[in-house]
Amino acid sequence: MNQQPKRAIVIGGGITGLAASYRLTREAEKRGIPLHVTLLEASDRIGGVIHTTQRDGFLIEHGPDAFISTKPWAKALCEELGLADELIGTNSTMRRSFVVQNGKLHPVPEGFYMMAPGALLPFLKSPIFSWRGKLRMGLELLIPRSNGGDADESVADFVRRRLGTEAFERMAQPMIGGIYTSDAENLSLKATFPRFLEMERAHGSIIKALLAQKRQAKTASGTSGPRYSLFLSFTAGMQTLVDRLQQVHLTEVRGKPVHHDGSTGAYLHLNTRATRLQQRKSGTGWQVSLADGEILEAELLCIALPAPQAGILCENVSPVLAKKLQAIPYASSATVNLAFRREEVAHPLNGMGFVVPATEELSLIGCSFSSVKFENRAPAEHVLLRAFVQKERESSESSLTEAALRDIANLLGIKKEPIFSLVSRHTQAMAQYQVGHQERVNEIETLANRLPGFALAGNAYHGIGIPDCIHSGEQAALALLCEENR
Question: What DSSP string describes 160-203?
């Protein structure tokens, strides 16, 4: 007699939910477990913040334009999906970036890493720092290790303690704040940059650690070089990953979700919002109520939503868990894509972009030279720029565009209007890893682990990047299947 398939529901069709759904499906096949996966997405498209479109020959990223290759999970998934030949690295001849200082772009000194110099001469020659600031950064070699034990501290406090105020304000704040769309004064060092904490513990100095790494890199230079660049994208943009995941494992179901019919595989339901969770009276399995009144049932459940939304769903199941999830803050972001003819931009664009310290008091957080950073982003003799704007200062699309264009025009020597501009917004999309974040996540996971057949995944817990989200979704899937096998 055929075994009745188990049922799994994944709520949230961003990259985390897609990774969870894919891994549930593939791993169940490997283990010989009949499984029916239902993927619920409240909007009319999957991919979450990952979204690529074309316009007049320009390739426009509305969300992330790349992923980091040193975290293996995204790269490994791409290879598993047969996408290795479509991966592209950043422009190897333009891998430097700029930072704004006194209204002008200056190259980040060669060897400088986030907050500290890893090469002496380029650092000393740089006009970004005053001689007083350079001296204070050099004194980092003599600053003793922290005796704070395991206590967390903010990134801002760490940088100022070790390297001084200039290092923080002129380099670390724009570099790190831009990555996390976050105020470094509240950003947890342990949760975001534990590597720097390990550098301090192992070497007693960030600069010593960077110099040691440089020596190791020289020693290893005779071996085979890296196969991939640090940041990777796709020839046709980041949407490639989303489209391939859908193509290889999802069947889209139009109309109302139906009760499980005994089939296996993964089934996508767009425009389908989950509103309430409830454990079945038997104590095993879940009931998921939908906005249209339908109720779905499953033995396994993965919530791949922003933590506050996950918290709302969990209110009926575990009020304590719900409260802790809703306490994780999120930030919004806005970008403005601007297209120009190449001759209209005076700056040589001899880098991948720039970041802007808060002390410059501009509307920009930074700007990516998209058509320089990656190939196939703009037609010949054209450029595509992508401005990251401080949304809280400018709200309407017209004011966002006006603010971005004003600052970029001054910095890059642009006197013409763009061919077109396109604003992209992501509301409450970026989890904020505030001081004490790891402890909060430990508490959340302890509570979640008490719920049978239940898993949380997303950018709220152990990393905000695409590789982190993929890993989170895959780990949630594997944990659910292991629990089901017990």
Answer: HHHH-HHHIIIIIHHHHHHHHTS-TTTBBHHHH-HHHHHHHHHH
Compute CA 268 distance to the chain's CA centroid, rounded to the nearest angstrom. 24
How many residues does this entry show for the chain?
486
Q: At 454, which CATH number?
A: 3.50.50.60
Is 347 among the domain residues?
Answer: yes
Least confident of 51-60, 165-174, 250-259, 262-271: 250-259
Query: What CATH number has the domain bearing residue 181?
Result: 1.10.3110.10
Residue 216 has pLDDT above 70, yes or no: yes
Neighbours of 343 (CB within 10 A): 10
Please check the confidence at residue 281 and state whether its pLDDT lies above 90: no
Instruction: CATH number of the domain at 373, please.
Output: 3.90.660.20
Summarize the confidence of residues 346-372 as an average pLDDT: 96
* pLDDT tens for each residue of 48-90: 999 999 999 999 999 999 999 999 999 999 999 999 999 999 9
CA distances from 240 to 61, 245, 443 (A): 12, 9, 36
Q: What contacts 367, CB < 8 A, 6 or more positions away?
A: 353, 354, 356, 385, 386, 387, 388, 408, 411
Question: Is residue 117 located within the same domain as residue 201?
Answer: yes
SS3 214: helix
* 258 has a pLDDT exceeding 80: no
> Does any domain span residue 40?
yes
- When the pLDDT of each residue in the chain is averaged and rounded to a whole number, the result is 93
294, with CB counted inside 10 A (0-12, 13-18, 19+), is middle
Residues forming beta bridges with residue 364, ordered by sequence position: 389
Give the pLDDT mean for 2-13: 90
Number of domains the chain is built from:
3
CB–CB of 132/170 below 8 Å? no
Residue 417, φ and ψ in degrees, nearest 5: -75, 150
Alpha-carbon span 152 to 439, nearest angstrom: 10
Q: Which domain holds residue 315?
A: 6-48+239-329+434-485
Distance spanning both ends of the chain, measured CA to CA:
22
